[in-house]
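Predicting holo structure, glutathione bound.
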Amino acid sequence: MIQFFYNAAPNPMKVALMLEELGLPYEAVPVDTRRGEQHSPDFLKVNPNAKVPAIRDGEVSVFDSNAILLYLADREKRFAPGPDQAAGRAECLSWLMFVASGVGPFSGQSVHFRHVAPQPQDYALNRYDFEAHRHWSIVEQRLSARQFMLGADYSIVDMAVWGWARMLPYVTGLDHVWERYPNVKRLLDTINARPAAKAAEALKAKHAFKVEMDDEARKALYPQNERLKR
Ligand SMILES: N[C@@H](CCC(=O)N[C@@H](CS)C(=O)NCC(=O)O)C(=O)O
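Done. Tokens:
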């Protein structure tokens, strides 16, 4: 059975959605990143990058959420054009990598500098907020002309977008963010209505992840800050 290493953050949730969409049996293994469990030697054998999500499928380990989505799509031949469909595959890979290298990281850094970083943060927040909006505007424009990111068919690209779209008010700090991104909201609502999304969200309640952002959590999540103390 597939082992799915997760917490309730956006990147693991994309994979939870895909596993539920596929109806594959899996064992959900919580990794409490605020307790530093991502740095344990056993977990590093699965993901040397010390982050969730990761999966173990028999002898195969896969880490990085979008790599896992693609691996599972290829394994099950669902939710992505296969390598034999050159044009569709190219479009899928382009948008998947756009989410992996743009939407996700810029949204994540926007969260960090808006909600976590100490002052002064204006320069960094301005950069990441700007870039997050720039990427989300591209998603919005794409969705204004088609039902899903790749057209008429729901795919792993939509699942990748869903992981972060759920967080957009928090990412941008804007209560009225959906007025700016109505088509992203439409996609979010469409996916949220699916049983797989409800099952993925329910995973959060299956484990009591640590909520305190204390010294242990800060050391585990932001080890770079130790250098500032020297
Ligand atoms: N590129 C990775 C990013 C994974 C990532 O940043 N995971 C976060 C949770 S969303 C994490 O594990 N954070 C713990 C840490 O940074 O120590 C992916 O898409 O899977």
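The chain has two domains: 2-79+199-228, 86-193.
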